[in-house]
Amino acid sequence: MLGRTLREVSAALKQGHITPTELCQKCLSIIKKTKFLNAYITVSEEVALKQAEESEKRYKKGHSLGDLDGIPIAVKDNFSTSGIETTCASNMLRGYVPPYNATVVQKLLDQGALLMGKTNLDEFAMGALGSDTGGSTRNPAAHCGLVGLKPSYGLVSRHGLIPLVNSMDVPGILTRCVDDAAIVLGVLAGHDPKDSTTIQDPVKPFVLPSLTDVSKLCIGIPKEYLTPELSSEVRSLWSKAANLFESEGAKVIEVSLPHTSYSIVCYHVLCTSEVASNMARFDGLEYGHRCDIDVSTEAMYAATRREGFNDVVRGRILSGNFFLLKENYENYFVKAQKVRRLIANDFVTVFNSGVDVLLTPTTLSEAVPYTEFIKEDNRTRSAQDDIFTQAANMAGLPAVSVPMALSNQGLPIGLQFIGRAFCDQELLTIARWFEKQVQFPVIQLQELMDDCSSVFENEKLASVSLKQ
Q1: pLDDT value at position 444?
Q2: Rounded to whole angstroms, how far apart are CA atoms 288 and 134?
């Protein structure tokens, strides 16, 4: 059951093949078996079982709340959850229990979803998964054989999402298939009076139309994304994907996004500047960690932030404050904002030329075995993986990573589709067509976890693959 799609599990619940409590217990069992992966910061077992009990009562009465009723979910630990600790994986917020739910969390719970817990992340989401600032949903999706969706900026409320970069943060969605992502997006999308950046118009349900004929589509291939660092396997699959569309009658053309080479530097300046501003609130006075030093207010501030933040966070705060200094503001921050506009305009020009979606790699290389991954430096990994993804955040565009195939090592490789702003439904419709064509192998989670557990105990996890 854990290997099925959301819609399949929902149907099984409605038909009585499994109860919400049984499904919840299966998920809790998997969470416990994979504890060594450190995937969860908090497991809300009691809360989830209570929610499952309530869901079960609704099903027995024939009053299901919808496709998400009784479906287990996990939320990244930078989304506020009422009564459940929300830490952003930081000492600064250890013990912080929000009095309210983030809008996206509340919408999921209102539909009967079961909150299994809060998942791990780099401190304050500086390179993590579940919310998407520069690729933090799409990159892990590509490495894990999942669909990772970053909706258009303003389509989904950010209220209750502890901010990293306000102008780029978007609640992201990780699912097994494109159709599941569309179902969740349909629940989350829409105006929120608590978030002034959300769209004002009501959002129609995200029901993806059937697409069988792609001959009227135009697929753009950005030439700037063909970088020397791109691995041969990813390059080959990218080419095969383009050929697939072409063989089915779609028009595939090379396009140019001329300011791509400036995007990483531009992103770094803007990201660290907003980080410096957002992290200023954590001073030890109102909430969060506070040191024991009471020599002076200034000494308390300094010690609190030194103890509360790790090196990555402190480094970004220092960089951001440097860019925002009076003597540097015009030369760095303002110029970066101008470049950001040029990058956004590049996409506008391409889409106005008749291109429906862009097809790009998601990451520079295929996924690496677990034992190699944990040895990598986070800063290097983040910088590498954001190359193809962060431009969509700066332009506010929807983008989705779809798994295409397994590498020679038996590990996932995903490709990315980027669409026009607020054309998320069209983007997902095309992505679903592609998903059906490539037939990425279904990951049998239970079997994989059994293999991982036994291999991990023997310290040979590097040999685990998804090949059947």
Answers
A1: 63
A2: 26
